[in-house]
């Protein structure tokens, strides 16, 4: 048995790509997308029809270039999501604009718009997760959306305060970023690598998963942003793991067993204390974690940079 198939015995595998053919190759349960992944796919000739259909919908709308560009982008995200859902049996995650990270009302409005487009195309909202940054404002938006069966994937999650607030808000899924936590501490320690036994990204996801299971939260944990296959293997047993095509290829190309690493017994042995956070408590606990503060701010900037690249691509098509 290859290690990818062995991993699937313990964990739901999610493809971290917008490439429909890559998703078809690895047969994951779910898939996640973001502006960078969508741009990479949209520039390929084989997805030209999705771009053209989205462009036609935008040109048919009233308004100026900005309004038509926004329509084009919404249509494009949903077009790729719809194609992905023809392959995966589970869900696809579709991201809201990073510029809405501190705008609760704007995030709610954009999420509702994306769900409207999916449902217009015959996709049940139960198969869509709206990706939102794990700011206090984003978490509040997710809490409102979940009340209307619009399910959310809270991304850019680096600190325990974010994880606790998401669980208390009743969000469907959180995506702790293993690789970016690893990057931060590797740079802070001035080392080329951190052994898996001491990997702070792996430890963060294990702690969050254990906390949720200990106190019965329904929120699922999906480890994300991996740098090496060993990090993936060390989190076998996590609810979901979203993995890049490169690492999926590596896992599928190597034989061996993958034992379950995260177990209810191991979680119980940690003897974790339950905490509750209002806004003041959240901001104080989050601010106490220098890494989480730095990586959340950086992550929003990087997501925005990638979104602006996709927006330029969109403006060129709309203007043309």
Walk me through the structure.
55% of the residues lie in helices and 11% in strands. By secondary structure, it is an alpha/beta fold. The protein has a single domain (3-319), classed as Aldolase class I (TIM Barrel, Alpha-Beta Barrel), CATH 3.20.20.70. It has an eight-stranded parallel beta barrel, surrounded by eight helices. β5, α8 and β6 (173-176) form a beta-alpha-beta unit. The mean pLDDT is 95.
Gross CATH architecture: Alpha-Beta Barrel
Q: What separation lies between the terminal Cα atoms?
A: 51 Å
Would you identify the CATH H-level superfamily? Aldolase class I
Proportion in β-strands: 5-15%
Biggest sheet descriptor: 8 strands, parallel, barrel
Low-confidence stretches: none
Q: Overall 3D geometry?
A: globular
The tally of domains stands at: 1
Order of adjacent strands in the largest pleated sheet = 1-2-3-4-5-6-7-8
Number of helices: 15
The CATH class assignment is Alpha Beta
CATH fold label = TIM Barrel
Helix amount, in percent? 55-70%
> Quick one: how many beta strands?
8
- The radius of gyration over CA amounts to 19 Å
Find the structural class using helix and strand composition: alpha/beta
Order of secondary-structure elements: HEHEHHHEHEHEHEHHEHEHHHH
